[in-house]
Every structure is written in structure tokens, then in C-alpha cells.
Design brief:
This protein is an alpha+beta fold. Helices cover 55% and strands 14% of the residues. The chain has helices at residues 40-43, 80-101, 103-135, 138-155, 164-178, 213-218, 222-237, 240-259, 262-270, 272-275, 283-301, 305-316, 331-341; strands spanning 2-8, 15-22, 27-32, 48-50, 55-56, 66-68, 74-77, 158-159, 190-194, 201-203, 209-212.
């Protein structure tokens, strides 16, 4: 870009016609049309520099901009518009240059931000969720459980084919083991369903435990079913399900807020009951429930073998993947953790 104007030598009133060459890389060169013999040496090559080594006057209305070189020469432009365009280009390039120059700082910032986000998601939100879950009134847990059961009965479950006698035996079994593990007045309730060849057991938000016929038939004895029931009681004892629901709700609300979908927040909270049906416990939750069951089994029966046996049997059966195994820690890891309770 070439700007026409006038140049003035240092400590001189002589004005010389000149052209200012502005390069895209920030380079600046002032070319004089003619010079007096006594100032020729002063001009020399010092009128070629870059934007970082020159003083440029601020834009003040229609007053011509001036460029002052380090040796005192000053160039005054005839056209401010072209200079403004060139300066905007240099500001953009300067930003990119600083970005490239500080790439290590930027990468470090990105990594720190990512680590902070990871910590919030993996530690902060679960901790907050646990506090919120503890404060949720029982009536809310009951409402969610009723809605979840209604949905499951309509879409997945079929009525249990276990005899009334067998159901009564298992209900009595739950009563006997829960009396030693539950200290409040909310005793767990046991329901029976069939679930398309799926050996399954899980807990609703009000503490109701559901056993499928397939799991009852898979267990070799009632001691193994006691281990299953204790594991589910462990989930309720630690409030795992409500904690996971709150955690997922927080993440969903944050995601909807970030993308600006405010209506999605309402949809997420309104469908909380259905979300319960697709929640998987974390590995830490499963290990905590195993630990709870193992401690009671060791106290009541002197051994945790029943819990190990039912876990191994569930893994080896060619049934639809049960909740007890899906997205859980490996069986080896769970058994090793159980053996820490009962090393013998």
C-alpha cells in the first residue's frame, strides 16, 4: 500500500514530497522524491523500519496522520483512510502474532481449564449431588418410585410367576435381614416381576426392591438371594440412585444452559422418573454396595462366599445383561474388594 504525503527532516523546516510504502507484514519505508545535499545523509536507510519502531499519531478528525521515525524524520500523510485500513490489518496480525508467540501459555490455559472442568464433573458435582439427594423429602422419592414402577409395568415387566408361598418366603427373608441393617422406620418393600429372560434386581427411589423371577431361579439358595438383597439395600443406604439422578439433572441443566436451550431444562426435570430407568450406578457406587453387603454377610453368616457365588453365576449365565453387571466394575475387581472384607 502506497500513501502520498510530505516528509520533514529533523531540526529542519524543509518539506519534501514523499511516499510511504506500507507492507502487509508491518514493514514501513519512506521514499523521498528529492533531498537537499545537506540533509541527504540524514535520510539514508533510516527511513525503512517496521511498525514496532515508529511513532504514529492518533486519528483526530480530518487532521493528517504523521509517522515519526527514530532518527527524527516525520512523514505526514495525505490520506488517512488508507492508513486506517492498514492499521486494522496490523492489529489483527498483531493479535495472531501474540497468539502464536504465547502458544505455550494458551495450551497450558486450555489444559488447566479442561482439568478444572474434569474435576468439577467428577468430584464437585457428585459431592453437591450427594448433599442435595440427602435433603430430598421422602414423598418425592415415593412419587418417583411409583411413576417408575408404573412405566416399567407398562413397557417392560410381566407379572411374576413365582408362587405366593415363594414370594412370602423371600419377603420374610428381606424382613429378617433388613431388621439388622436399617435403623429408621422406612423398611424396604419387595416386589416380584418377570423381565424377558433377564436376571435382574434393582432398587427404586423409595427403597422398594424388585427381583425378577429369572434371578430368583438363578440363585442356588436363599443365602445368595440374601447377598443380592443386601447389595440393593446398600444402594439405598448410600442413597446412590437419588444422587445419580440429581447429578444427571445438574449436568443436563448445565448442558441446556450452555447451548441456550432453556426449554430443555424443563423437559429434563419433568422426565426425571423416566431417567431413573436408564441410570447406571458408578463403579464406586457398586463397590460401596458390595462392601455393605459383604460386611453384613460376614457378620450374619461368617462368610462372604454367597455374594461371590451369585456374581460369578450372573456373569457366566447366557442371559440378557443384567443391571448388576452392566457398566459395573469387572467381576475380578469386585471379588477382590469383597475379599478385603473377608480375606479368608
Amino acid at each position: 500500500m502506497i500513501i502520498k504525503g510530505k516528509a520533514v527532516a529533523p531540526a529542519s523546516a524543509i518539506t519534501i514530497a514523499a511516499e510511504l510504502i506500507l507492507n502487509s507484514d508491518g514493514g514501513i519505508e519512506c521514499v523521498l522524491s528529492s533531498v537537499e545535499a545537506n540533509i541527504l545523509t540524514a535520510a539514508d536507510s533510516a527511513l525503512k523500519t517496521d511498525i514496532g519502531n515508529i511513532t504514529i499519531s492518533r486519528a483526530l478528525g480530518a487532521i493528517p496522520r504523521s509517522f515519526t521515525f527514530v532518527n527524527g524524520w516525520t512523514f505526514t500523510a495525505d490520506d488517512n483512510a488508507k492508513i486506517d485500513i492498514w492499521l486494522r490489518q496490523q492489529n489483527k496480525q498483531s493479535w495472531l502474532h501474540r497468539l502464536e508467540k504465547n502458544s505455550i501459555t494458551i495450551i497450558t490455559s486450555i489444559l488447566l481449564s479442561s482439568l478444572s472442568a474434569w474435576y468439577v464433573i467428577n468430584s464437585g458435582i457428585p459431592a453437591i449431588s450427594g448433599v442435595i439427594a440427602q435433603s430430598i423429602p421422602p414423598v418425592v422419592g415415593k412419587h418417583l418410585a411409583d411413576y417408575s414402577l408404573e412405566y416399567l409395568d407398562e413397557h417392560d415387566f410381566t407379572p411374576s410367576k413365582l408362587s405366593i408361598k415363594r414370594q412370602d418366603e423371600l419377603t420374610s427373608l428381606l424382613s429378617s435381614i433388613s431388621s439388622t441393617t436399617i435403623t429408621d422406620n422406612q423398611k424396604p418393600k419387595l416386589l416380584f416381576r418377570s423381565l424377558a429372560d433377564t436376571a435382574n434386581a434393582f432398587t427404586l427411589t423409595d427403597g422398594t426392591i424388585i427381583l425378577t423371577d429369572e434371578l430368583v431361579m438363578l440363585a442356588q439358595d436363599d443365602r445368595e438371594l440374601s447377598a443380592v438383597l443386601l447389595h440393593e439395600i446398600g444402594h439405598q443406604y448410600h442413597n446412590h440412585l437419588l444422587k445419580r439422578l440429581v447429578e444427571l439433572s445438574i449436568l443436563s441443566v448445565l448442558a441446556n444452559y450452555i447451548v441456550g436451550d432453556a426449554t430443555g431444562i424443563g423437559d429434563t426435570l419433568a422426565s426425571a422418573s423416566v431417567l431413573l430407568l436408564s441410570l447406571d450406578y458408578s463403579q464406586q457406587d457398586e463397590l460401596e454396595a458390595d462392601k455393605f453387603a459383604a460386611k453384613v454377610l460376614l457378620s450374619e453368616y461368617g462368610s462372604v462366599q454367597a455374594l461371590e457365588d451369585i456374581l460369578i453365576r450372573l456373569e457366566s449365565e447366557a442371559l440378557t445383561s443384567p443391571t448388576w453387571l452392566r457398566s459395573h466394575p469387572g467381576i475380578g475387581e469386585r471379588i477382590n474388594a469383597i475379599n478385603l472384607i473377608d480375606p479368608l
